[in-house]
Amino acid sequence: MSMSSSPLSSSAGTAPRVVSFEVARHLVEKHAAGVCPGDLETVDLLAGLGRVLAEGIVADRDFPPFDRATRDGYAVLAADLVEVPARLEVVGEVKAGDWPEAKSCSVGRGQAVGIMTGAPLPAGADAVVMVEHTATLGRDTLGGKFVEVQRGVHAGENFVPRGAEARAGQLLLDRGRWLDHAGVAIAASVGKSQVQVFRKPRVAVLSTGDEVVEIDAMLAPAQIRNSNSYSLAAQVVNVGGEAVRLAIAPDSPGRLRALIEEGFECDLLLLTGGVSMGKYDLVEQVLGELQAEFYFTGAEIQPGRPVVFGSCGKKYFFGLPGNPVSTMVTFELFARPMIEALAGMTPRPLVFVSARLKSEIRTKTGLKRFLPAVLAGEFEDAEVELARWQGSGDIAALAQANCYVVVPPDRERMEAGELVSLLMR
Ligand code: AMP
Ligand code: MG
Fold first, then answer.
1. How far apart are alpha carbons 156 and 279 in whole angstroms?
2. DSSP alpha helix (H) spans, 239-380
């Protein structure tokens, strides 16, 4: 089994290091670029959906494999239709699946061959005229069948030439590509009933906190159900990893340390909680005792400012803040690219879209904010509005949101009607 390669060495030690969002993201991307994905597996094509290709998918023949009609109508010579209406003799018919033999089914001057969408263009023809622009004329006295064409066509119209979409041997899907339904269609069309994919990275999820309990436990008044473990597991699965949910770590160093060590048996460790400034926030202390190296111990963002990224031996870890919204946002911004890299994926940049703001936003300057919001409205009328939330613990508000409005650190006010950047959820 190939393990992730050693984390890059860095000048970062254990001293606190709070960086801008961009620096934090680039640090993760730099380290992610150096990891090796796991072994290869061969799976049935549909089992490959949502997996990362470990092989390139190549065209096994030209696409299309023949000049393919894109309309029902008549294969013709465009030169016969310079003047319309024109009367052409119908000398044959090809339907999808037929192979027009040049001897019995070819188009000469003054001739046409009936053709259906998906059928190969017969020899001699250089265009297809749509059936909507024709009228059948019946037979002449010698039994010949005729069609009247009412509109001209250009050579090349209404068919796709052989090989125009791809040439035999051409790479259609790269290794490292996430296989989605379009990729499945391509693999199917080149006859791949099985595909090679990378093993899913195993991602340990470790929640910390004395107040946090299993979701099916009887609750004491001040206890909180361990929702982070589940939201993180779901996010891990969504980006192509396998989640390994560990037991809840109390805010005491001994047990926390044992569970962290268990987590390092996986390819990546995600911790939640215990990274803020509180007296019982012990995650960094315990990782420090394990000789961890910290690349950053905070990012100038909200939610999620206390986020931590580092490595310990050969394994990377993220310490995500325990507030459920912070956990989800920091996963998306930082943990995701690392998991994708461990899954063998070619790195993808964060994509922001823009939309008009429905009502003004007021914040304080200094942090880049990712505020849960709802993008709604049809077509060009779409507008975005902040979800009404009570802060980083408000999962109810987050569940209503479908995106985050990105507020730059130097803005304290964004006007209604302004175009703002969104990170879709
Ligand atoms: P912390 O980051 O440990 O200071 O926790 C911040 C807030 O998130 C506190 O209100 C915690 O109770 C809450 N929290 C921490 N861990 C979890 C968890 N696993 N599931 C749900 N809420 C949590
Ligand atoms: Mg805590």
1. 75
2. 253-263, 283-289, 324-330, 336-342
Residues with CB under 6 A from ligand 1: 207, 209, 211-212, 224, 226-229, 272-274, 276, 278, 321-324, 393
Residue-level length of the chain: 425
For 263, the 3-state DSSP assignment is helix
In angstroms, the Cα distances linking 375 to 83, 361, 409, 423, 424 are 54, 15, 22, 11, 9
Report whether the peptide linkage leading into residue 349 is cis, meaning its omega lies within 30 degrees of zero: no
Instruction: Report how far ligand 1's centroid is from the alpha carbon of 240 (Å).
Output: 25
Strand, coil or helix: 388: coil
Ramachandran quadrant class, 211 (left: phi over 0; alpha: psi -120 to 50; beta: rest): alpha
Question: What pLDDT is recorded for position 6?
Answer: 57
* Best residue among 208, 235, 272, 395 to mutate for probing ligand 1, ranked by most atoms within 8 Å of CB: 272
Amino acid letter for position 120: P
Q: How far is the CA of 322 from the centre of ligand 2 (A)?
A: 6
Strand order in the sheet with 145-149: 127-130, 73-76, 111-115, 86-94, 145-149, 134-139
> What's the pLDDT at 14?
60
Structure tokens at 241: 């990893």
Query: % helix / strand / coil in the chain, to the nearest 5?
Result: 20, 30, 45
Residues of the chain with pLDDT below 50 are 1-4, 11-12
| Per-residue model confidence (pLDDT) at position 3 | 44
- Residue (of 114, 123, 76) closest to 95 by Cα position: 114
Q: Please count the other Cβ atoms lying within 10 Å of the Cβ belonging to residue 314.
A: 13
> What phi and psi values does residue 363 have, to the nearest 5 degrees?
-140, -175
